[in-house]
Each structure stands twice: as structure tokens, then as C-alpha cells.
Specification:
Layout: H1 7-15, E1 20-23, H2 29-41, E2 47-52, H3 62-73, H4 91-101, E3 105-109, H5 115-124, E4 127-132, H6 135-143, E5 148-152, E6 158-159, H7 175-185, E7 190-193, H8 199-207, E8 212-214, H9 229-236, E9 243-246, E10 254-257, H10 260-265, H11 278-293, H12 315-330
Parallel strand pairs: 1-2, 2-3, 3-4, 4-5, 5-7, 7-8
Antiparallel strand pairs: 6-10, 9-10
Bound molecules: flavin mononucleotide (FMN).
């Protein structure tokens, strides 16, 4: 999970028998390599590293950005004129770092890896797990050489893995419909993700044809995730309808708690939200201040629809307990 690249969480999940993961979109190449070294030192040899496939550089609108800066200034510190210039790390250099780490698998989201990178993965025997959110995306991923597709239902916390930034909201499919449709459409294994946080969800996903399960929000209250306590507490009492998909934090659609800031940013009187990564840069000072002040209403509080099922227990125990509960349910 980007923004939560806590090695301790990955190590615990890996040692409990899960596949440890790193959301590396915001990490510089040397940070990706350092993460992999730390996780290996922690006793977890099998892990996967995830990157976002970059969108084309967005067109800028200085006047609209000025309105957003003024709006955000009422929610946090004044926003610097150049705040929207923040750019993510270089994608090609991140891909090189992935190869240097030699993980068991890499995963992609928001699109597909370039063909030449896929060739390099295959040469090294590194598996490619492609996140998809529609049947068409699943077919495209299989055709491009993905070894596994990860079907992300619209219940999911964090960013929507839509290949098209423009269509992310319009193409929201729930996991109960998406999963069997994807299983029927491709011949590679399908991992289910989105709104799964307990044994009931895992068993349901297996019944719908999933080969494995991916959990995000369900791990956020584990101490190893080390998120702000105010966010962790809020997750525990957030009902499904209290989450919402918006572009308010980064400019890319993502599901978070429906906080005061998100409601205001989506109101009719709010200025137009800027594209990724401009909006991300513009909201950075508000998000940082909210972290310092423990104000969840202004925090980037990602949350899936099953947020309230997340348990505040160590991640190793959570994985083992979930697995035992699944075995009991299946028996
Ligand atoms: C805080 C957070 C950060 C995430 N970052 C990423 C990411 O960088 N790459 C990615 O493919 N998915 C990311 N996701 C989405 C997860 O991979 C997964 O699809 C989602 O968490 C599943 O839904 P759930 O949260 O209901 O379990 C993130 C999710 C959360 C909650």
C-alpha cells in the first residue's frame, strides 16, 4: 500500500504465510532497494513490489490551481504557488530498481507494464500480477503477458486501479459481479480484492472462483502499519456508506473516509479538482498538517467499504487467525 510501505507489516504478513508487498509508487529507486533489503533481513524472502503505470503529463490550468490553492488554504496552511509542480519518481528508474531487487513477483496498477519490461521480467522468471478493475482490462492484461490478474472491486480502499483515469468513477464494478466475470474471461489465476477483511469475505471470494485473496484496509489497524492513531480509530467505526470514491486528495479516484474535507471538496461551491499528480502536490501541506494535528477530518484517510471489519491486532496473528477461520468455515 503506497504511503504505508511499512516493512514490518510486510515481514509479518510474509512470515505468516501471505505474500508480502510494497506499494512503491512514491519511493525513489534507492528506497525500493532499501525496502527489499530490510524485508529480506527480516526473514521474508518472497515478496512483490507494486508500481503505478504513469499517466501522460497533465495539462496545467494556473487559474484553476490558484482557486484550489485558496480553497485548500482554508483547510490547512497556505499552499505555495509551486505546490502543484511536485512530480512522482522516475518510472523507468523505478522499473530498474524492481529488477535489481529480484522479487518473486511485481505488480502493476493503473495500466500495463511496457512490453520491453515484461520481456525482462520473463527472462528473470519474475511473475507479473496485474491489477484490473474491469473484464476488458483483465483480457488486456492476459494478452500483454500477465501471469495473474488481481480483480479490484469498487469496494476497495485507496486508489481505484482503473487503466483510464477519466473512466475510474463511471466503471465501478462490485467484486461480486466482477470476480466471476473475470474468472470466466481469462485462463490465468485471479486474485480477489476489495472489501475483503474477514473469513466470510475470503470464503465468498473463493466460491466465486478466486485463487487467492488480497487485503488492504483490513491490515491498516495492525500496529505494524503504523498509520496515525486517529485514522486507525476512525476505520474501526466507519460504515460502508461512510466511505466515498473521490479525487479530492491526489487527482486520481480513490476511496477514503467521507471526511469533512472530502465533502467540502466535492461540494458544488468547491473549485474543480486538478489532475494527478497536481492535486496531490496541492493537498500536501494540508495532509501533512492534519498528520501533525491528528485531525482525521483533513487527513488522507483511505478506507475500503469493509473498514469496520479491520482488527487492531498484530499482522502475523491476523493472517493466521483469518486462515484458521477460513478452514473452519469451509469444513
Ligand atoms: C492505504 C492504501 C494504499 C494503497 N496503495 C496501493 C498501491 O500503491 N498500489 C495498488 O495496486 N493498490 C493500492 N491499494 C489498493 C489495494 O491494493 C487493494 O486493491 C485494496 O486495498 C483492496 O480493498 P480493501 O482495502 O477493501 O481490502 C491501496 C489501498 C490502501 C487502503
Amino acid at each position: 500500500m503506497a504511503g504505508v510501505p511499512a516493512p514490518a507489516l510486510s515481514i509479518a504478513v510474509g512470515r505468516a504465510g501471505g505474500l508480502a508487498a510494497c506499494g512503491a509508487v512514491l519511493l525513489e529507486p534507492e528506497q525500493i532497494i532499501a525496502w527489499a533489503e530490510e524485508v529480506r533481513r527480516g526473514g521474508c524472502q518472497a515478496f512483490q513490489v507494486n508500481l503505478w503505470i504513469p499517466d501522460p503529463t497533465p495539462a496545467r490550468d494556473p487559474l484553476a490551481e490558484e482557486r484550489v490553492r485558496a480553497f485548500l488554504g482554508a483547510w490547512g496552511p497556505p499552499v505555495a504557488p509551486d505546490a502543484g509542480n511536485a512530480t512522482p519518481p522516475d518510472f523507468s528508474a523505478q522499473c530498474e530498481a524492481l529488477l535489481a531487487c529480484n522479487p518473486i513477483a511485481v505488480s502493476s496498477v493503473m495500466g500495463l507494464y511496457p512490453a520491453e519490461f515484461v520481456v525482462q521480467l520473463k527472462e528473470r522468471g519474475i511473475l507479473w500480477l496485474a491489477n484490473i478493475s474491469t473484464v476488458a482490462e483483465a483480457r488486456a492484461a492476459e494478452a500483454a503477458g500477465a501471469d495473474v490478474v488481481v480483480a479490484q472491486g469498487m469496494e476497495a480502499g485507496g486508489h481505484r486501479g482503473s487503466f483510464s483515469a477519466q473512466d475510474a468513477e463511471a466503471q465501478q464494478v462490485g467484486l461480486f459481479a466482477l470476480l466471476p466475470a473475470v474468472v470466466d474471461a481469462v485462463s490465468i489465476p485471479v486474485v480477489a480484492t476489495g472489501g475483503i477483511a474477514d473469513a466470510r469475505g475470503i470464503v465468498a471470494a473463493l466460491a466465486l472462483g478466486a485463487s487467492a485473496i488480497q487485503i488492504g484496509t483490513g491490515f491498516l489497524r495492525c500496529p505494524e502499519a503504523d498509520i496515525h492513531p486517529a485514522w486507525a480509530r476512525a476505520l474501526g467505526h466507519t460504515a460502508p456508506e461512510d466511505t466515498i470514491v473521490s479525487r479530492a486528495f491526489s487527482g486520481r479516484a480513490g476511496r477514503s473516509i467521507k471526511t469533512d474535507y472530502v465533502r467540502a471538496a466535492l461540494s458544488d461551491s468547491a473549485p474543480p479538482i486538478q489532475p494527478y499528480p497536481v492535486q496531490r502536490g496541492l493537498t500536501a501541506s494540508m495532509r501533512a498538517a492534519a498528520q501533525r494535528n491528528g485531525d482525521v477530518q483533513k487527513m488522507q484517510a483511505w478506507a475500503g467499504q469493509s473498514s469496520s471489519l479491520a482488527r487492531a491486532v498484530p499482522a502475523y496473528d491476523l493472517v493466521r487467525t483469518l486462515w484458521e477461520e477460513v478452514q473452519q468455515t469451509l469444513a
